[in-house]
Amino acid sequence: MRVLVVEDEAALRQGVVAALAAAGAQVQEAADGVVGHYLASEYPFDVAVIDLGLPGLPGLELIRRLRAAGSRLPILILTARARWQEKVEGLESGADDYLAKPFEMPELLARVRALWRRAAGAAGTVVVAGAYRIDLDAQQVSCAGNPVALTAFEFRLLEYLARNRERVVSRRELTDYLYPLDEDRDSNVLEVLIGRLRRKLDPAGCHQPVLTVRGRGYRFAPVEGG
């Protein structure tokens, strides 16, 4: 799961980032609305946590611009407990959920996971595609009942392809999803990961689900029924 946190209060932002990272999420942070809008517009995220009282570009305007541009990114807004009007305005602007300050980190994590699962099209924590069963919380994969042992990177790769299985995912999009924005990226690493993932999926007794679409990217296309 990749999460964008846009919060100008440094201590709170660092606490949220640390809690999400400890829960296994890959987190990118921004301290103002302008940077947050750029990151949300240019890079793929699963969920965004956005404070409404942001410098540069207020949270409400950030959300409005994202929705006006067609973004379907699940958004959890952070708002002051006394400002109930902000909750209403945030939801009407296109946010999916809200959390009033002060809040407990376990509640924030639960709400972020719920938005992630909803966007994944899963009522619970499991995505089922063909004979594949992908447990998002436990980070476990099985095919036709056979467990498939994957590294954290391999799981993130398969999970993203599976959740976007109705379309072709470009190499750039996958690379942006897998790696922090400030990390050096080797163009050959993705091919190595794809190859390793395919080798691990083959012995599971299922048809190879990770297809290359020449010149466009990759697609997760499991055969229904195995």
Automatic annotation (TrEMBL):
SUPFAM superfamilies: CheY-like (SSF52172). GO terms for biological process: regulation of DNA-templated transcription. GO terms for molecular function: phosphorelay response regulator activity; transcription cis-regulatory region binding. Keywords: DNA-binding, Phosphoprotein, Transcription, Transcription regulation, Two-component regulatory system. One of its GO terms (cellular component) is cytosol. Residues 123-222 form the OmpR/PhoB-type domain. Residues 123-222 bind DNA. Gene3D superfamilies: 3.40.50.2300, 6.10.250.690, Winged helix-like DNA-binding domain superfamily/Winged helix DNA-binding domain (1.10.10.10). Residues 2-116 form the Response regulatory domain. The modification 4-aspartylphosphate is found at residue 51. Pfam families: Response_reg, Trans_reg_C. PANTHER family: REGULATOR OF RPOS, TRANSCRIPTIONAL REGULATORY PROTEIN PHOP. This is DNA-binding response regulator. It comes from Pseudothauera lacus.
